[in-house]
Design a protein that fits this description.
- The chain is mostly beta strands and about 180 residues long.
- It is built from no helices and 16 strands.
- The strands form 5 sheets. Strands 3-4-5-6 form a 4-stranded antiparallel sheet, with no helix packed on it. Strands 7-8-9-10 form a 4-stranded antiparallel sheet, with no helix packed on it. A 4-stranded antiparallel sheet has the order 11-12-13-14, with no helix packed on it.
- It is globular and about 45 Å long.
- The two termini are about 25 Å apart.
């Protein structure tokens, strides 16, 4: 959408397919993007670029109440998923000396811990429904591919895609992983 001054901005909307109606959820200045749904679908987490300080907000998914700022960092951060117990977020960030990284943001302590940090671009971190596995895309091989790694501290990862893979998403029961190939 456009703001009052005619400058471009992005807002978050929810579309109710049963009623064939859309409801606007965000009204803040600046652009809201990178939304992640809570496991119970009652909240959304998203980033806002107005202050350029890496702010993440939470808002009720039914549009009620006000947006609550849950944390900021000196660098830009954006949510990509919410842990099954809703105690932490998977976030993307641009770190010092790295491109894009996949990190863990604790909602209580605001502490940030690495999940996938390499010299390459690593993005779109998504948790399996049970929270044990992390899927993400990396350009480490020279093109975007989708990988999965365990979050229990064991080492190793598995390349899932073979002809490129972006924006992974788990099926609701965790038995399949979907991703977009670079050609769409």
């Amino acid at each position: 959408g456009l703001n009052r001054e005619g400058q471009g901005s992005i807002d978050i909307w929810v579309h109710d397919f049963a009623r064939a109606a859309a409801q606007r959820l965000t009204f803040e200045e600046g652009s809201e993007s990178n939304l992640a749904w809570s496991p119970d679908d009652r909240s959304i987490y998203y980033s806002n670029d107005l202050r350029n300080d890496g702010a993440i907000f939470r808002r009720a998914s039914d549009g009620s109440g006000e947006a609550v700022e849950i944390g900021t960092t000196p660098q830009g951060i954006w949510p990509s998923d919410v842990a099954p117990d809703e105690r932490w977020l998977v976030i993307g960030s641009v770190g010092a000396g790295t491109n894009h990284d996949v990190l863990r943001f604790d909602l209580a302590t605001k502490k940030i811990e690495p999940l996938v940090v390499t010299p390459f671009m690593d993005r779109w971190g998504r948790l399996s429904p049970d929270g044990r596995l992390l899927a993400y895309a990396s350009e480490e091989s020279g093109r975007w591919e989708t990988y999965v790694q365990a979050l229990d501290g064991t080492r190793g990862r598995w390349q899932i895609s073979s002809d490129g893979g972006l924006e992974p998403r788990w099926r609701g029961d965790g038995s399949e992983l979907f991703f977009v190939q670079p050609d769409g």
